[in-house]
Amino acid sequence: MAEVAVIAADGTVVIDRAGQVGAASDPFQRLLGGLDELIQRARQRGMATGLLAQDEGVMIAAAATLIHPRSSMTAPVVIFVRPLSAPMLRRLGEDRGTDGLSFRAEARTSIWRPLGSQASLSLVAINGLPRAAYIRAGVVARSLLPVLAFLASILAAPAVSAQRFEPTRRWLRPVDDLGVVLMERPLLPLAALSLDPERAWLERLGFALFRSPDLFGEMARRAGLSCEVCHIGGGANRRFFVEGASIKPGTFDVTSSVFEGGIDDGRFNPLTIPGLGGAAQTAPFGHRGEFKDLAAVTRHVIVEEFGGVEPDRQAVAALVAHMERLKPPDNRLLDDLGRLSNQASAAARAGEALFHRVFPGSSTLSCAACHTPTSHFGDGRRHDVGTGGLIDTPSLRRGNLLPPFMHDGRFDRLDQVVAYFDSHFGLDLDPGDRANLIAYLEAVDGGGAVEPVALIGDLDVVDELATAAAGAIERRALSVLSPVIGVVRRELGQIHERFFGEAQGLAEARQTLIHLSAGFREAERHGEAGNWLLAGEWFRRTRDELGAARSVLEAVAPRSLYDPELLKRALAARLR
Q: Are 443 and 339 in contact, with CB atoms under 8 Å apart?
């Protein structure tokens, strides 16, 4: 007989020890009457993402959400493939606060296993709110067992195809092509790591924290948001879209309460997501140039925009160190002074002359006066160009030349941008002039590099993240240990999703990745307990196994969803 305990979002007991419906009967009846709806909601919200985890001996299998009807608050519903003892629940109850179990579970629970006839289930709604009350499990009445069996059938392996890649889908409009997103990604070049070991580790740590949702507040963290989601590859994610917070893809209202940030101006005013290539050289920072240094704007984004706790100095310094490595796209058409080379087209060179031409009625003002080629195509100043107040001069060298354009995303085409400045400054450009200016802007931008998503690249990322985690253990840097190892495990989970299916070797690959994730979790657990020697032992052993696992994974990759054709077929089946 399975043990079941359900706790509403306000801590109210839904099932008591005798297995009877408790005071909060409505949410329990909703749970019984709409299990399929709850699972679908979990899929739509990406509440079941990442890698199968084993924490305190509990294998987490799935997650959904229970919505309390009186408070409208939500609590995760976590499904376990083994009963939870009262002592275990008490241990789970001690895991509170911003790193509560429920959020850890949600971030790592997309792997679904067929539940054998001998398997027993425990269905537990754990309130993820800080200082939440937890209770020990009760014994469920036999009448509920058919419901649990029905739930098990929903979660059986044949139904898993509908669940794949939902976290990625979360940031796209329904009309966007998920296949393209999963097959290629933008990538800005990184400057070489510092020769100083401490600085190099800080840069690697920033590379990891840039991918960590743990920096942000509860809502953003639950959604799996990180710096990398919006600034994918260090550039601008022009596909990023959140219903109610984006006016179009590539925009987001950072002064809204959608992620419970610290600022909400009560207006719907999304801004264009900027690319970060070369941003460190283009102070001031922020669309309106409010911040003098990267540390200040980084802290502002974490705390004020996405509701995170005050970050420690090491985390901020690491993020800044990483962003300082982000370079603009390589551009063979520009020399060191920002001048076009002879390889540029005739139209682009004609546009360059227009770019430097002084505006009518002025003795100094020109496009180049603000977007100065020798200063990373910026001037470090703010200007009013008729779009509503002072705006920081954006660099034209960040690989950003994708819609939407302008700080508020008002334009979808470059010709609209050129037409706006032509009208605002009275430039009197003819159609040929406008076309030449567009050719010049395209030549200066250089276009962002795109790389295919491949197993070898993903494993290289894991290895880089593991190096950052190794440094955290070596330095006993407790404050960043969990976020960094969490990112390592998240990346392993994303790789795991590519090995979905029954083809030869895929099950072995999945088990290999699960084993690696569990090993890194053990290292994290020992570090959190202050057992740094054991943490180092577990980490070194697991990292050695990661190196050995490469050959296993690479051998199976052609039969996995890393293969573009197999991925296309899987996505087509998912949409039927």
A: no
- Under 8 Å between Cβ of 209 and 201: no
User: In sequence order, what E strands does 432-508 have?
Assistant: 449-452
| pLDDT in the model for residue 223 | 84
CA-to-CA separations, 241 to 248, 251, 252, 448, in angstroms, rounded: 7, 7, 7, 20
Would you say the C-alpha torsion 476, 479, 482, 484 has a positive or negative sign?
Answer: negative
Cα 328 from Cα 343, distance rounded (Å): 19
CB atoms within 10 A of CB 356: 11
138-139/3-6 β-pairing? antiparallel
Q: Which residue has the tokens 């789970």?
A: 92
pLDDT 10s digits, 535-557: 999 999 999 999 999 999 999 99
- pLDDT at position 65 is 36
CA 379, CA 391: separation in Å to the nearest integer?
12
179: nearest Cα among 543, 388, 452 = 452
244: exposed, middle or buried (Cβ count in 10 Å: 0-12, 13-18, 19+): exposed
478-498 helix and 313-325 helix, angle to the nearest 10 degrees = 50
CA dihedral (238, 241, 245, 247) positive or negative: positive
| 336: Cβ contacts below 8 Å, ≥ 6 apart | none
Residues found in the chain: 576
Tell me the C-alpha distance between 443 and 39, whole Å: 48
Spatial distance between the Cα atoms of 234 and 232, rounded to a whole number of angstroms: 5
Cis peptide before 311 (omega within 30 of 0): no
Instruction: Assess contact for 179 and 131: CB atoms under 8 A.
Output: no
A 10 A CB-CB count for 296 gives 16
What's the pLDDT at 383? 93
Residue range 366-422, pLDDT digits in tens:
999 999 999 999 999 999 999 888 999 999 987 667 899 999 999 999 999 999 999
* Token pair 């002084």 in the structure block, residue: 358
Instruction: Give which of 494, 534, 533, 537 is closest to 517, Cα–Cα.
Output: 494
